[in-house]
Amino acid sequence: MRDKLLGAAAARPLLVVAALTVVLLLIVLSGATRNLPLDLLIRSYSAPEEGPQNCSLASPIEPAKDKLLGGLLSPAFDEPSSPIEPAKDKLLGGLLSPAFDEPSCLSRYQSAQFWKSSNHTPSPYLLQKLRSYEALHQRCGPHTDLYNKSIDQLRSNRSTGPLECNYVVWLQSGGLGNRLMSLISTFLYAILNNRVLLLSVPDDLHDMFCEPFPGTSWALPSDFPIKKFETRDFYGGSPQSYGNLLKNKMLSNGMDATHASLPAYLYLHLTHDADDSDKMFYCEDAQPLFQSFPWLFLRSNQYFAPSLFLVSQYNDELQKLFPEKEAVFHHLGRYLLHPTNSVWGYVTRYYEAYLANAKERVGIQVRNFPNAPVKFELMLDQVINCTLKEKILPDIKVEVPANLTTSGVKPKAVLVTSLQTGYFEKLRNMYYEHSSTTGDAIGVYQPSHEELQRTENQNHNTKALAEMYLLSFSDVLVTTAFSTFGYVAQGLGGLRPWMVLRPDNQNSPCRRALSMEPCFHFAPAYDCKAGRNIDKGTVVPHVKHCEDLDFRWGLKLFD
Q1: How would you class 287 by CB atoms within 10 Å of its CB: exposed for 0-12, middle for 13-18, buried for 19 or more?
Q2: Is pTM, for the whole model, over 0.70?
Q3: Which segment of the chain is annotated as a signal peptide (predicted)?
Q4: What is the pLDDT of residue 406?
Q5: What are phi and psi of 11, to 5 degrees?
Q6: What are the helix (H) ranges across 51-175?
Q7: CA within 20 to 30 Å of 424's CA: 193, 267, 409, 449, which one?
């Protein structure tokens, strides 16, 4: 009995120590799970445009937790190593010049952190060509000596042949998507012809894009001799248009322009409604004639790059620039289009608030065209049927009570962009009112709903550009056939989207794009050598008809 009492007495200190250990452990764990102070939470999430550090994809900062629990655990054990994602190349494989001040245009070097890693590497020749172009633009940009010399020629009202610096001036047409289609095409034309690209920037595009070329500007200066471009002189039927001058036999393709009396500039009308004479621009024998004009003014709302691949004199150069044909817009768009900090703030704030923590991001872009409308219910069915059939989104459990989603799994984020709210509301309610068959939580978001397209409103265009970029950050993209808005997103993101088709006589609600390139909607069918219309989609292997169009004159680049 005495031995038992002694044993019990000896055990009491051990019980006291164990009890104290448990109390201490509870205190530590309690302190570790308290809410963060409000001021720390506020400081941990600030507006992205305040500085480069604020566009990080990281979650809000939390205080470091004591992994040894106040010394209760031994540090002698090895921790399992977690994989660290390598930093993405902010220069995009050398596509971007490092010569810029990063804070002045945050999007230029930060976009790479948001896009999926690209499998499309720019060719060494393209990188060399871009650096050469940047040097040319610095020599010939606004208010340089060589630019001033070219301005003197323009004021003389006659062309004296090519100068050391020759220009193509881009003029806007259509909505933002169409404008960006034509801008990229015009830049490609500029680098193929050693011309300097300048922009007549409309009021509704001011402060939307950063300067893309170091040490110079791409905007026409305010003292440019021609003040107004939204006049008859710079639209179809203009007396100064190439097409009109051809019809009036004042110019002809293949003419010897050495001693000819030529106007000071040539206007190129390449919009969707260009007539047959205007479309002679795409003829091979027209290209030497254009070299006689130091100033070309080009208006288009089309992605006309595919037709440049049908001009044989450009073949060798284009092959070296773009051995991968479907990456033309992908590379040139990422090189040229950088939202200003004010626009980038829209993008990053929305991304961090709604999309950053998702395990997968699905972009859905819905466009209903006023000149070919589709009833809302029919278009909604196409979108839902597409996403379910192609397993982009999970189906729902309709006849059973809503179950809890699988705990501990990050949600799937669905970003809807549309002028209307109906598509967003239907998708949101679908996954709010019913559980998914996979147990995934589905969050549905829509940044804006303008109801009508307001192309000439800067705030409208700012939101449109921000949403194009947000869509380009998707893992999977669903777009509307024929929509240039969707083309911009897929090109920037390097994505081959699922294209929702019109419900008219379609066996499938959508079709997977075989190329991430945009479509040249209204490409010319006329063959200049044959003197008749031909099927341009069968001339070369890499230029074919677009998958999202029923008519046969749309052209697109493929590999």
Answers
A1: middle
A2: yes
A3: none
A4: 59
A5: -80, -20
A6: 106-110, 124-140, 145-155
A7: 409
- The radius of gyration computed from the CA coordinates of the chain, to the nearest angstrom, equals 30
Give the Cα-Cα-Cα angle 478, 351, 178 (nearest 5 degrees).
Answer: 50
Q: Which residues have CB under 8 Å from 53's CB, separation 6+? A: none
Question: How many other CB atoms sit within 10 Å of the CB of residue 272?
Answer: 12
Residue 270 belongs to what H/E stretch? none
Question: How would you class 355 by CB atoms within 10 Å of its CB: exposed for 0-12, middle for 13-18, buried for 19 or more?
Answer: buried
Yes or no: say if 394 and 436 are a contact pair by the CB < 8 Å rule. Answer: yes
Residue 44 has a pLDDT of 35
- CA–CA separation, 105 and 338 (whole Å): 8
430-457 burial by CB neighbour count: b if 16+ within 10 A, else e?
A: bbeebbbeeebbbbbbbbbbeeeebbee
Contact 116, 475 (CB under 8 A): yes
Work out the angle at residue 112's Cα, subtended by the Cα atoms of residues 109 and 118, and round it to the nearest 5 degrees.
140
Where the chain has pLDDT below 70, the residues are 1-87, 259, 400-408, 450-456, 505
CA dist., res. 447 & res. 425, Å (int): 12
Per-residue model confidence (pLDDT) at position 422: 94
Q: Quick one: CA torsion of 471, 473, 475, 478, rounded to 10 degrees?
A: 10
Task: Determine the Cα–Cα distance for residues 360 and 4; give it in Å rounded to an integer.
Answer: 64
CA 381 to CA 500: how far, in whole Å? 10
Parallel, antiparallel or unpaired: strands 412-417 and 360-365? parallel
Tokens 């992605």 — which residue? 303
Q: Give the pLDDT score at 545.
A: 96
Residue 63 contacts by C-beta under 8 Å, 6 or more apart in sequence?
36, 40
